Structures are given as C-alpha cells and as structure tokens.
Amino acid sequence: MAEQDEIGGRIAAEVGTMVGRVAVAIEAGDEVEVTREGTRITATLHGDSVAPFIGRHGHVIDAVQHLATRIAAKHAPGGDWVVTVDAGDYRTRREAILERVADEAADRALRTDEPVALDPMTASERRFVHERLRDRGDVATHSEGDEPDRHLVVSRPKA
Prior knowledge:
Helix content: 40-55%
Structural class: alpha+beta
CATH superfamily of the largest domain: K homology (KH) domain
Radius of gyration: 18 Å
Number of domains: 2
Mean pLDDT: 93
Largest sheet: 3 strands, mixed
Order of helices and strands: HEEHHEHEHEE
CATH topology of the largest domain: GMP Synthetase, Chain A, domain 3
CATH architecture of the largest domain: 2-Layer Sandwich
Shape: globular
Low-confidence stretches: none
C-alpha cells in the first residue's frame, strides 16, 4: 500500500506539473488542482480562460490527457491508474452530450429498425457510448472505420 501511495504521489506530481506547464505555454487557466482517490487521479485546470486548453472539439485537452496517461504508464506499467484531465467542467458537459446522442441514436435505431452511424469520436468517447448503451440492454453497438474517422454504429440486437 505504501508503494502504491508513493507511485500515486509521483504520478500526481508529474501530471500536475505537466498540465501547469501546458496551461502557462498557451496562456490558459490560472490554477491546477490535482486530486487522488484510490487509483484515480484528476488534474483540473481552473480559471476564466480555459477555452484554449480545451481546444476545438476538445483536441487539446484530449492530447494533454493522453500525455497524462503516458506519465501514469511510465510509473505503473500495469495500467492500474486512471488519469483524467479536466478544465471548466468540460468532461461533465461532454458526457451529458454523449449520453443524449447515445440515447437518441438508440431510440432511432429501435424506431426505424435501421442501424444509426454516429459522428466520429475519440476512443474514450466511443468507449463511453458503448458502455452507456450496453447498460441499456436493448441495442447493440460496434465501431467502424479507421482513425480519425472511426465511429460507432447503433442497431437493434440480432435475434
């Protein structure tokens, strides 16, 4: 347990430093808050000007989160640590949008009995929608295409 605390401390410190450096470099946000809960680490950028840190369609914040995940993998190759980077409640707002899009696609697939292809999404967003609709139980999902145009398809489950 002490080793896990030490590893978590190193990951949290490095992630916080990296997020802070990126924020300073692009003149975004004012303060980085890093929290730990078990094996989950969240780095949140606070301030009035977090939009550049989020970037268009979340591209910047997703890239920073990818780097944060690589930091965790460097210290704990087993993949036990989950690192999230957020700014201005972007992740919460994006999840709400994805929930709505997923439910609307599922309802449409059931109503029309036709597969519904969603717009391309990042791997983490596709995973979120897959899990959301799997829990629903009345539709099936699968991914199609190649990055960066990989997208999710929602359909009625095969009988």
